[in-house]
Design goal:
With 316 residues, this protein is mainly α. The protein is built from 17 helices and 4 strands. The protein has helices spanning 2-15, 19-31, 35-40, 69-78, 82-98, 102-106, 109-118, 129-134, 137-154, 162-166, 169-180, 194-212, 216-221, 223-229, 251-255, 288-292, 307-312, and strands spanning 238-241, 283-286, 299-300, 305-306. The strands form 2 sheets. It has a two-stranded antiparallel ribbon with strand order 1-2. A two-stranded antiparallel sheet has the order 3-4. Helix 7 crosses helix 12. The model is unreliable at 289-316 (pLDDT under 50).
Length: 316
């Protein structure tokens, strides 16, 4: 009986959501607080829609109470609206300087969805030199689909948010299907065509790949993550490394699922999973996260286990 109780307690202990997961869920719920939209099938158009949320969350999602910064930037560039473009760039600059890619690890709903899908038990595709090279694709997409194409069409007075229109699986999942699955929007089904089929295929591809490998959209495709990555060395809240303690052993990099070369570089999503792996405790949270969650450097943020428990138990 005691053995059954111990196993049950261990299972519960290992499956209690850790702090990062709680913050992720809270952020997703906050971004999509318009619960009425899921009932009526209508897009919220209140005053808060003028505000960009930090993470990837489609404007067209029935629950969305804010705008996606990536979609807002494309719309501003394609509309040649300079004041709006400066506003969106200012917001991105502010988010970047404060958080960097901490937003990717903690405040992005589509990142949360990928994290949950990756937990499904199956064989996994691990990172390699190929995935590291492929991680630079998102910068190409940022330049071509988010900046160049919207600007080109914008000068012809044609609004083309190219990335949102042709690629974004987050928009298809939360926006398109969020609306189409509502019985009140049955008439929208008659408007679907080849573009919707293409975007559905892209969405399914990334959902399946998220089961097989860690965050494929974040690592290879997301232009918003590419923007925030430029601030990873400057952000106020995120991962910090005490260079005086660091021995360059590389343990932190080996256990990280992202294509990082060092902790805190442009591919680091600042999740904190590397903190307990450091044998000399050189990695820590800098900024307000360390203040809000005192002692956080002693916890495994991914598995919700303390460092002492980690040393005696097998990782999930």
């Amino acid at each position: 009986m005691q053995n059954v109780f111990s196993k049950t307690w261990l299972w519960i202990k290992n499956h209690i959501p850790n702090r990062r997961r709680i913050v992720q869920v809270f952020a997703a719920l906050l971004y999509n607080a318009n619960l009425k939209g899921y009932i009526t099938g209508n897009i919220y158009k209140g005053a808060s829609k003028a505000i960009c949320v930090p993470g990837m969350n489609c404007y067209s999602c029935p629950g969305a109470i804010g705008a996606c910064p990536l979609g807002s930037l494309q719309n501003a560039l394609s509309g040649a609206n300079h004041s709006t473009a400066f506003y969106v760039l200012g917001i991105l600059l502010l988010y970047g300087l404060i958080f960097g890619r901490t937003i990717c690890g903690w405040l992005c709903p589509f990142g949360l969805l990928q994290d949950l899908l990756f937990k499904i038990k199956t064989f996994k595709i691990t990172k390699s030199k190929f995935t590291y090279a492929l991680s630079y694709l998102k910068y190409v997409l940022l330049v071509v689909l988010v900046i160049i194409l919207p600007l080109i069409y914008g000068y012809q007075n044609i609004a083309v948010p190219a990335f949102c229109k042709y690629i974004c699986p987050a928009g298809t999942f939360g926006g398109a299907y969020g609306l189409l699955l509502n019985p009140n929007n049955e008439s929208l089904l008659e408007m679907l065509g080849a573009l919707f089929t293409w975007k559905s295929m892209v969405m399914v591809f990334f959902l399946v790949m998220s089961v097989l490998m860690f965050r494929p959209f974040c690592r290879f495709i997301c232009p918003l993550g590419a923007i925030y990555s430029f601030f990873n060395k400057l952000n106020l809240v995120g991962i910090g490394v005490d260079e005086k303690k660091c021995t360059k052993c590389g343990i932190c990099v080996k256990q990280c699922n992202m294509d990082v070369k060092e902790v805190g570089d442009h591919e680091c999503i600042q999740c904190g999973k590397c903190i307990p792996s450091c044998p000399v405790k050189a990695i820590h949270f800098k900024g307000s996260l360390a203040y809000i969650f005192p002692g956080y450097h002693k916890e495994n943020l991914e598995d919700s286990k303390t460092l002492s428990t980690m040393e005696g138990e097998k990782h999930e």
